[in-house]
Design a protein that fits this description.
- The protein has eight helices and twelve strands.
- The strands form three sheets. It has a six-stranded mixed beta sheet with strand order 6-9-10-3-11-12, with helices on both faces. Strands 2-1-4-5 form a four-stranded antiparallel beta sheet, with helices on one face.
- It has a domain of 172 residues: 3-Layer(aba) Sandwich (Rossmann fold).
- Helix content is 32%, strand content 28%.
- It is an alpha/beta fold.
- Helix 5 packs parallel to helix 6.
């Protein structure tokens, strides 16, 4: 059974056609590298899957059920989480508070309730252990490295027991060591059966973790193949148009 199936997805903004008949199937525990030049349609496709945009045409199926997302919360309820490039973290809060932001557990009686920090710290610690991250629940995000911040964002995505995580340029503007940490986090998700769509311009990162490579060019899907059957040189040719669709 597939986690996600897109059939003929198209999206237009007035006279501008951002996507044209894109079809894609994502399976459990699969990492897909989504690549393309600026303006190729990657962000639009991510926002459609994440519930920010409705497609102009085509269908979305989750676990063999056709769905229509009107809001991001509906995609989250269907098991889809998006980790955007800016991560949307609050620097003045702890790792645990960021993991539970907007979903904080409470304790008490009737209307007299307070935040259950103990439960947040315990669950956050479990999520970081699951990801084999050294991030600590009580640490402030402002003091964290880029890799640790990604761990917080991914732990937040795991809180709802997601089946698919979309990651938008997670290794941009971080050090080599932190890149290795993020790629390890992606492998941890895959090992737990979570599917990942990795949007990236970095060829070594994509070919380091992806099972399949999907290339968009001018809103059209021009390649969808096992990463082992492709190469950075071929993907570069597909992105620029030097190589036709394969």
């Amino acid at each position: 059974m597939s986690v996600l199936e897109l059939q003929g997805i198209s999206k237009s903004f007035g006279a501008i056609r951002a996507l044209s008949e894109v079809s894609l199937t994502v399976r459990p525990g699969e990492v897909i590298g989504l690549m393309g030049d600026n303006g190729a349609g990657k962000s639009t496709l991510v926002k459609i899957i994440g519930g920010n945009f409705a497609p102009s045409a085509g269908s979305i199926r989750i676990a063999d059920r056709t769905v229509q997302f009107a809001r991001p919360v509906e995609a989250r309820e269907a098991g889809i989480e998006v980790v955007y490039q800016d991560l949307a973290l609050c620097d003045n809060l702890t790792a645990a508070a960021n993991v539970f932001l907007g979903r904080e557990p409470t304790r008490g009686v009737g209307p007299f309730r307070v935040l259950d920090y103990g439960a947040m710290y315990r669950r956050a610690a479990e999520l970081f252990a699951e990801l084999k991250s050294e991030t600590r629940p009580r640490d402030l995000v402002r003091s964290m490295s880029g890799g640790q911040r990604q761990a917080v964002a991914i732990a937040r995505a795991r809180l709802s027991d997601s089946r698919l995580v979309l990651m938008d340029e997670p290794t941009a503007a971080i050090s080599v060591r932190q890149v290795a940490e993020v790629l390890d986090l992606i492998r941890r998700l895959r090992d737990r059966g979570v599917a990942v769509i990795l949007v990236s311009h970095r060829m070594p990162d994509v070919f380091g973790v992806a099972d399949r490579v999907v290339v968009l060019r001018r809103g059209r899907l021009v390649a969808d193949r096992p990463a082992g059957d492709s190469s950075p040189e071929e993907v570069t040719g597909l992105i620029t148009g030097a190589i036709e669709a394969v």
